[in-house]
């Protein structure tokens, strides 16, 4: 049996090139799409389509309606459809996770970071990615700004490929845990300052999940109130003493 693996800018162009090389017609082959073309995201992660084309054995009959009719009538269509839907859901999540990893790696390579390793943990719709590199500080950036920006992009990439919404978190060297401790300590200091001065205290702009950390840290205090002002990405948190 003749077969060939062929790449192309699209699946169809790869198939056409393979048929031309094999000198056969489309109805004479079996086509397996190894990988569809990927346009990438923001210029990163683009890949060519890849197909495997096998010339059919003339002695092997094609599956026709007569053969399909021998399938057991007891098969429950709804059960099969549910199983297919579940498998498809798992497939899209797995692809979304892999595409996200590929995207993060491509960004890192653009920053001359070539030793990046990524592991992940999934709990329902929440997917946490853990980054390891000798140059991981570059991926974190000042006050986590680079990591936060990369996380926002990773969120977009993941949900581009998943048919179920995924919440993405990126972490490196336990930065998220260390940052949470820093924010909680800062929250207490700023709340004490608001009480001491009797006036409102304003934080610098923060992403929503960091503002949430501060809100939660101060929720136990009965002498102040917290709220957010402004519009993202310049939205900030305010503390005011209760009178």
TrEMBL record:
Gene3D superfamilies associated with the record: 3.30.300.20, probable RNA-binding protein from clostridium symbiosum atcc 14940, R3H-like domain
UniProt subcellular location: Cytoplasm
Sorted UniProt keywords: Cell shape, Cell wall biogenesis/degradation, Chaperone, Cytoplasm, RNA-binding
Domain R3H: 177-243
Primary location group: cytoplasm
PROSITE patterns: R3H
Protein's UniProt keywords contain ATP-binding: no
Highest taxon above the source species: Bacteria
Keyword Glycoprotein attributed: no
Subunit-level organization: Forms a complex with KhpA.
HAMAP family in the record: KhpB
NCBIfam families: Jag_EloR
Family under the similarity heading: Belongs to the KhpB RNA-binding protein family.
Function text: A probable RNA chaperone. Forms a complex with KhpA which binds to cellular RNA and controls its expression. Plays a role in peptidoglycan (PG) homeostasis and cell length regulation.
The record's note on its domains: Has an N-terminal Jag-N domain and 2 RNA-binding domains (KH and R3H).
Protein name per its UniProtKB record: RNA-binding protein KhpB
Organism in which the protein naturally occurs: Planococcus shixiaomingii
Gene responsible for this protein: jag
